[in-house]
Specification:
By secondary structure, the protein is α/β, with parallel strands linked by helices. The protein is about 30% helix and about 15% strand. It contains 19 helices and 22 strands. The longest helix is centred in the first third of the chain and has 21 residues. GO terms for molecular function: protein tyrosine phosphatase activity.
């Protein structure tokens, strides 16, 4: 076919704005508003067709050129003259072939210039970022004839996210099944590798078989999924794999052999067989579950850690494409492809080319890196990766790594350890993240005016009728290594917040308290004694009764019975009070503290308690941050065999400000981890 469906005809099927994958600006033009109202009436009669958000300026071209000319315009290595100066990176080759004004105006950036570049782009409320993003244009024309065939339209999750003809993945045709060669998926280039990825939509029930057939035919061993099945109460992707056992999808038999669920992602291992074939294959499925329902992650640390985990488990010998999808297969998918490609580029070059790579991807699949926020996030992630580098360390190399961090060359003023800790101070959020904490009714509930809970992760108490601010407590949920909201980090209760503290424990089903400060240190109150010594105490409608107390060498374990007087329900709560943290500085040895952490986690596991562990010191960020950080790092080392203290402190600080508060505490984390590693070698 030499004609395509005009862009306007695609627009007639667009859903309500609130049904789109991301938010878009409401049109102000009267013609656009009339079209939008018309579209809504059309869609009510044509559900369940969906559409994903369009960029502010449509990138799909209304005019087309013959398919043969498109193929001629695509750059391949074999089409270039053999020359030692010929670039091997597809993006560089595209720049060589297409000297567009936009590409010439946005050249690759030296990695050491990236901080200055990003700061400039972010000035005046991202003014230059907006201009740069809006200028991205392949300046070529592409057809999507096969996507537009009537028999293939039901296979598209969103009516305006199509598969370009020249780069689409062509399936092997099944006998007597028209259109069986079609799937909404495109090959995309990576760093120094053509067709390194396949970008595709989240499979639909009617395309499960096509998806698994594509995995088999392309000999892919890795699938990356960047959405949850449901987000914001809307389906984003249908579950195309079995929860347990096995299931047949079309001609592919899929069985699940292993599942590893972590706080921010899940790894599944599938075994595949094709009907009529004796060959068996293994596929690893990575699902990132920490992308928020709206917008982008507040900090790239978790996403970078996810990408590195994917890379670490790839078969380095295999050249098969990585299959990447989110819901539409353009937004988050584009972010993954660009960031992963830039991380690979940084291993070999001193420049990054985010603009060029997005331009290249837009010539292979429409709308890649779909929104301006995603484009900015991509820059932030690459900036983070280029300035911090990979901070993962093998346990066997930890000692030498610490020595390097503490070494001070004669020509330098700061050690690498000091510089590493200083980078953490850049993780800040604006005042809008502390709305509840700054309300007049809540200000006296904060022990320190500068240590407040982020709104996005704060623990919200059940509102008490007639009591303004009764939902507030200075506490945040903190993710563990394997479980979301595994911990609650909070300040030492004040006299006026003790009832709120016990109410939080009850409402959040907390069975374990970890206390890392004495009630008084340096003749100052660090924490109000919120528990009874002998006689029961009453806090609102809860009674707290002391049961027993065990004095261990380095900590005290107390048991309490808490009862809700409204219904008579009771629970046992255990408090682990660490007594060996000095009033000044940090413990001389990390061994005792590591043993203490182990005892707490062992008790939680022993009693099968599902609620979060509540941890506090005085401010809920210093010693509290050290406890949580070490718990996570040591657990990850057990499962993955790597240590990354810097990145996990980054992640903690995106959930509660100032976690691991001082450089001395930061060094203690390294030292305690090293002591633990050394104990394993003995």
């Amino acid at each position: 076919m030499e004609t395509t469906i005009p862009f306007e005809e695609h627009m007639e099927s667009i859903m309500h704005l609130e049904d789109m994958a991301e938010e878009v600006e409401t049109p102000t033009d009267s013609v656009d508003m009339k079209r939008l109202r018309h579209n809504r009436s059309v869609l009510m009669a044509h559900l369940p067709i969906q559409v994903i958000e369009l960029p502010k300026k449509p990138r799909v071209m209304e005019k087309t050129i013959p398919f043969e000319e498109q193929v001629e315009s695509i750059v391949y290595v074999e089409d270039l003259e053999e020359d030692i100066a010929t670039p091997t990176d597809p993006v560089d080759m595209r720049r060589l072939r297409h000297h567009t004004p936009a590409l010439m105006a946005h050249l690759p950036i030296q990695a050491n210039e990236l901080p200055k570049k990003v700061k400039k782009l972010k000035a005046n409320n991202n003014e230059l970022f907006s201009l740069e993003y809006e200028s991205i244009e392949p300046e070529q024309q592409f057809t999507w004839e096969i996507s537009s065939l009537e028999m293939n339209k039901p296979k598209n999750r969103y009516v305006n996210v199509v598969a370009y003809d020249h780069s689409r993945v062509v399936l092997q045709t099944l006998k007597s099944i028209p259109g069986s060669d079609y799937i909404n998926a495109n090959f995309c280039d990576g760093y120094r590798k053509q067709n390194a990825y396949i970008a595709t939509q989240g499979p639909l029930p009617d395309t499960y078989g096509d998806f698994w057939r594509m995995v088999w035919e392309q000999k892919s061993t890795t699938i990356v999924m960047l959405s949850k099945l449901v987000e914001n109460e809307r389906p984003k992707c249908d579950q195309y794999w079995p929860n347990r056992g096995s299931q047949t999808y079309g001609v592919i038999y899929v069985s699940i052999s292993e599942v590893q669920e972590l706080a921010t992602y899940c790894i599944r291992t599938f075994n595949l067989e094709r009907v009529g074939s004796a060959e068996k294959r293994q596929v690893t499925h990575f699902q990132f579950t920490a992308w928020p329902d709206h917008g982008v992650p507040s900090h790239p640390a978790s996403f970078l850690m996810f990408i590195r985990r994917v890379r670490s488990m790839l078969d380095l010998i295999s050249s098969d494409p990585i299959i990447v999808h989110c819901s539409a297969g353009v937004g988050r998918t584009g972010c993954f492809v660009v960031i992963d490609s830039m991380l690979e580029r940084l291993k070999h070059e001193t420049t990054v080319d985010i603009y060029g790579h997005v331009t290249c991807l837009r010539a292979q699949r429409n709308y890649m890196v779909q929104t301006e926020d995603q484009y900015i996030f991509t820059y932030n992630a690459v900036l983070e990766a280029s300035t911090t580098g990979s901070t993962e360390v093998l346990p066997c190399n930890l000692y030498s790594h610490i020595q390097q961090l503490l070494h001070l060359p004669p020509s330098e003023k700061h050690t690498k350890m000091e510089l590493e800790f200083q980078k953490l101070s850049k993780i800040r959020k604006n005042t809008s993240e502390f709305v509840s904490a700054n309300l007049p009714v809540n200000k006296l509930k904060n022990r320190f005016v500068n240590i407040l809970p982020y709104e996005s992760t704060r623990v919200s108490l059940e509102q008490i009728g007639g009591m303004d601010g009764s939902d507030y407590i200075n506490a945040n949920y903190i993710d563990g290594y394997r479980h979301k909201r595994a911990y609650i980090a909070t300040q030492g209760p004040l006299a006026n917040t003790t009832a709120d503290f016990w109410r939080m424990l009850w409402e959040q089903n907390c069975r374990i308290i970890v206390m890392l400060t004495k009630v008084t240190e340096l003749e100052k109150e660090k924490c109000h004694q919120y528990w009874p010594d002998e006689k029961p105490q009453r806090h609102l409608y809860f009674t707290v009764v002391p049961v027993t107390e065990y004095n261990m060498p380095h900590y005290i374990m107390r048991e309490f019975r808490i009862t809700d007087t409204r219904n008579g329900q009771s629970r046992t709560i255990r408090q682990f009070h660490f007594m060996d943290w000095p009033e000044k500085s940090v413990p001389k040895s990390g061994e005792r503290f590591i043993e203490f952490i182990g005892q707490v986690l062992k008790t939680k596991h022993q009693f099968g308690q599902e609620g979060p562990v509540t941890i506090h010191c005085c401010d809920g960020v210093g010693r509290t941050g050290v406890f949580i950080m070490l718990s996570i790092v040591l657990e990850r080392m057990t499962y993955e065999g790597v240590i990354d203290i810097f990145q996990y402190v980054c992640i903690l600080r995106t959930q509660r400000p100032g976690m691991v508060q001082t450089e001395e505490q930061y060094q203690f984390c390294y030292r305690a981890t090293l002591e633990y590693v050394s104990s394993l070698e003995q």
